Input
Amino acid sequence: MCSSDLKMKTALTIAGSDSSGGAGIQADLKTMTVHGVYGMSAITALTAQNTAGVYGILEVDKDFLIKQIDSVFTDIFPDAVKTGMLSSSEIIITVADKLKEYKARNIVVDPVMVSTSGAKLISEEAIDTLKERLLGAADLITPNIPEAEVLSGIKINSKEDMAKAADIIYAKFGCAVLCKGGHGVSDADDLLFDGKGFTWLFGERINNPNTHGTGCTLSSAIASNLAQGRSLETSVKYAKAYISEALGAMLDLGKGSGPLDHMFPIEGIKAFISE
Output
């Protein structure tokens, strides 16, 4: 085995910090670590939040964000990149320009718009900038149903609508789409569209009210699998299995919608997933 095969794979999360540890870069780094990937971070915003709500957001200065991203790419080049909370147009443009400059690969964009507790995390202007500057650079975007409605411009009330929205989003931005169905359209069925075909990933809804950070965790799990050289479809399948088990572990912390159990043993996941 050559030395390159022994080198640990790496991933970078560009996202906000969650002081409660359930979402944002904290969830991302836990997820990357449990997948055997070396996780790095560039923080876009500090949030004061817990399982009950978001109580404050302090956006990071653009120049300092640039220094964080430069520090990572010029030393430990990431095998995959995941973006999360990008709350302003300036931050989005900065991230998009830097990813283009460094020719980043395996880019997974979680178009974070609203927190699990219902707090708005991005301005209307920034949504337009996200569409114009970042989504076209992604290999995969992972919108939930409300986010897919914003990005596609249609209302989603059925699986057929999910497929139509995914098709529209792909046509607009030219990147693969994972439309997550966990917001009432279906039990927990997600739809992957890569421009060539639709792949349904079926799942049963897990009766667990503690869903804080599910979007962050899923996108980070996908990025971790991509970093390890897996195909997009396999990466999504593995990530979905991981988040289902993390939810099924039934961790119960906090007074509101609590976090997942990111650290449950994942060794058995590959055994029950067909490639």
